Amino acid sequence: MRAYIINLDRAPERWAHMKQSFETTKIEPCRVSAVDGKELSLPCNDFDERRFHLFHGRATNIYEVACYLSHIKAMNTFLETQEEYGLICEDDVFLKPDFELLLEEAIKASSSWNILRLTGLHPGKPLVVKKLTDAYELTVQMGRLKGAGAYLIDRKAAQVLVKKLLPMWLPWDHAIDREWFFGLRALSVKPFPISQTEEQFQSAIQGNSKPKLSSWRRYLTTYPYQAMNELSRWCFRATNIYKRN
């Protein structure tokens, strides 16, 4: 298996960190040159800014657009291979010592997922569906899981997402967290086997965070969309749990 590491050309120290992280594993780190927000300009054919404002309710963060397009690039790089699974990672994550064993067990349960979330900015609202190891469990998230620093993906999901998720109109972690709209299944691991909450590297996205748009605009479009999205998430994932039992 390969790990597709999204890394800016101007951040060699992060690539060195990721290469060192995988040295003790059988997983081959493959560098994906990230789209650089400093070199990206708008308008962009792969970014629907009007729709982003309507449904996300925030001003545009060019680094968020670059991050999104970098994840699409990583998936396309994975699809150029013949491998069945690809590990997509941002370059500021930290692997837990038993990470590789966890992946082996998770792949044995791959009939249950197309996307396996391995990190998050918070634990989320997980419901356990299967024990993987003494330390880890397979879970369904009943709420939105913030952060997409690392996830395991199969070919079906990658093929669908590179077609369906362009142009961008949500941040990447929002977009990938709507798998049911594309006929896919997503699970997560509890506790996360990879951390994206360490503070060794500064996030360009968070460092350039943009304000919310006016309240009246958000009440007209953003909040109704978010309510519908959360309701459909809960219904789909609850139904998925029911079918498993």
Descriptors:
245 residues, alpha/beta, Spore Coat Polysaccharide Biosynthesis Protein SpsA, Chain A, two-stranded antiparallel sheet, 8 helices, globular
Descriptive notes:
Helix content is 39%, strand content 19%. The protein starts with a strand and ends with a helix. The chain has helices spanning 12-22, 49-56, 62-79, 99-108, 155-164, 172-175, 204-207, 215-244, and strands spanning 2-7, 28-33, 85-90, 94-95, 115-117, 126-131, 137-141, 150-154, 186-190, 194-195. The strands form 2 sheets. The chain has an 8-stranded mixed β-sheet with strand order 2-1-3-8-5-9-7-6, with helices on both faces. Strands 4-10 form a two-stranded antiparallel ribbon. The protein is globular and about 50 Å long. The model has no long low-confidence stretch (mean pLDDT 94). The longest helix is centred in the last third of the chain and has 30 residues, at 215-244.
